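Appendix C reproduces, verbatim, an entry submitted by the partner laboratory led by Prof. M.T., so that reviewers can inspect both the input and the predicted structure.
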Amino acid sequence: MGKEDMQLFWGSGSGPCWRAMIALEEKGFGDIEKTHINFSEKGHKGPDVMALNPRGQIPTFKDGDIVVNESMAICLYLEQAYPNNGNKLLPTETKDYAKVLQMAIEEL
């Protein structure tokens, strides 16, 4: 899979969407296809999003036939699937890794 197979569904003003966009940028995928979803027009409840995420929430990330919902899941997926692309999203030292996970999960 490559950049041409990636797509991000996002909405402006959404912290989780920005988290996913920053992670994509850090991993070197900032120029993938991005589909802006208009919250005020209930675009996140439209058929395109609902087909990928029955909860009707964004961000939603597609990488070929893999669909990942939730910003933290997108970040973890990118790090696992593309460990050698761009910048590391997670520290390798256990103590630092635990701290990052704790802070990230507190945001949920």
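The chain is about 40% helix and 15% strand. Additional entries are available on request from the coordinating office.
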